């Protein structure tokens, strides 16, 4: 009988390498709509919020347009860029209201990701800070160390040691880690919350994309490499009415809401993104919004509500990421 690790290696995703004769895939244009909707049992008097919902420019992604629309009309709506280059939107709704709808509309172009074989064949030991060179931003060192939601954890070191074996190519390590988490953790939307700890997730081995990204980041950092938590979206299937989408495309887990994965720094390439939830290297089906040390740096929406004692609320989130022809008009 194969061990869990042997099974994971057997199901590790293919590394997207750059071949001399391989034609590049065309870039994909997406219309993106993210709706966060609160309904309050009793009217509240004030809402403060900060949203990380604007797609960001990357070597593989261009942001053509973006707009945040809030209902009720906010007293204040301002943009902010943080230490890691993420754009967030601050909102204040001042006055009695029974609902809060935050819409994010964007149009992005996402390019193919393929990596040079030589760099992906580099032994993982040569991917730590001592091998970065002088051109990488100083903040990259933040992603080597433990963070508030991803503390140094013993079981993460055990996972790391089983994947990052001596002199192994970094590409194989990342593929193996992706397959290992996918094979050994069960996706269960009811098993955890946004406050669940890494220790709890490692013990129960159930969770969602946020949890699996945290596990991956912890394992990479345990090897002394840089890994960051990435938030964004997955491509969804268009509906006939053009409304927000609830049916996933290509059986991708997490495509009807915000998604999360991790990114690892590889000298000679830059950041390489992997998605353990869907057992894949990140490709043109993914739209990136923000990254940080862990979830706490870039939640889609957080804030404070001022209202009567005991007031309750219901939350609904809907996401549409629909491909469109380049230059074609349209909004979701």
TrEMBL record:
Signal peptide: none
Gene source species: Brachybacterium tyrofermentans
Pfam families hit by this protein: Bact_transglu_N, Transglut_core
Cross-referenced InterPro entries: Bac_transglu_N (IPR013589), Papain-like_cys_pep_sf (IPR038765), Transglutaminase-like (IPR002931)
Gene3D superfamilies: 3.10.620.30
Location of region: Disordered: 1-23
This protein's name: Transglutaminase family protein
Lineage of producing organism: Bacteria, Bacillati, Actinomycetota, Actinomycetes, Micrococcales
Transglutaminase-like domain segment(s): 201-278
């Amino acid at each position: 009988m194969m061990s869990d690790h042997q099974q994971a290696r057997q199901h590790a995703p293919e590394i997207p390498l750059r071949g001399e004769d391989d034609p590049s895939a065309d870039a994909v244009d997406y219309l993106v709509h993210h709706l966060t909707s609160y309904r309050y049992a009793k009217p509240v008097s004030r809402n403060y919020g900060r949203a990380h919902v604007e797609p960001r420019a990357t070597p593989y992604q261009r942001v053509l347009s973006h707009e945040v629309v809030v209902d009720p009309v906010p007293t204040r709506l301002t943009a902010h860029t943080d230490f890691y280059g993420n754009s967030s939107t601050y909102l204040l709704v001042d006055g009695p209201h029974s609902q809060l709808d935050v819409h994010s509309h964007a149009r992005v172009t996402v390019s193919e990701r393929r990596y040079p074989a030589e760099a992906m064949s580099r032994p993982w030991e040569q991917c730590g800070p001592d091998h970065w060179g002088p051109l990488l931003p100083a903040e990259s060192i933040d992603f080597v160390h433990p963070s508030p939601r991803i503390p140094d954890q013993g079981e993460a070191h055990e996972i790391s040691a089983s994947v990052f074996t001596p002199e192994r190519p970094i590409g194989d390590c990342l593929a193996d880690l992706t397959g290992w988490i996918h094979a050994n953790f069960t996706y269960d939307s009811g098993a955890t919350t946004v406050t669940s700890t890494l220790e709890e997730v490692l013990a129960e081995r159930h969770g969602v994309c946020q949890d699996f990204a945290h596990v991956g980041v912890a394992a990479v950092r345990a090897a002394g490499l840089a890994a960051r938590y990435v938030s964004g979206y997955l491509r969804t299937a268009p509906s006939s009415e053009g409304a927000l989408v609830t049916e996933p495309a290509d059986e991708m887990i997490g495509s009807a809401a915000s998604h999360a994965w991790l990114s690892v720094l590889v000298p000679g390439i830059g950041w390489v993104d992997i998605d353990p939830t869907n057992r894949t290297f990140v490709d043109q089906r993914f739209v990136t919004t923000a990254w940080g040390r862990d979830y706490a740096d870039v939640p889609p929406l957080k804030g404070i509500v001022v209202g009567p004692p005991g007031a309750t609320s219901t939350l609904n989130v809907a996401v549409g990421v629909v491909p469109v022809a380049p230059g074609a008009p349209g909004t979701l």
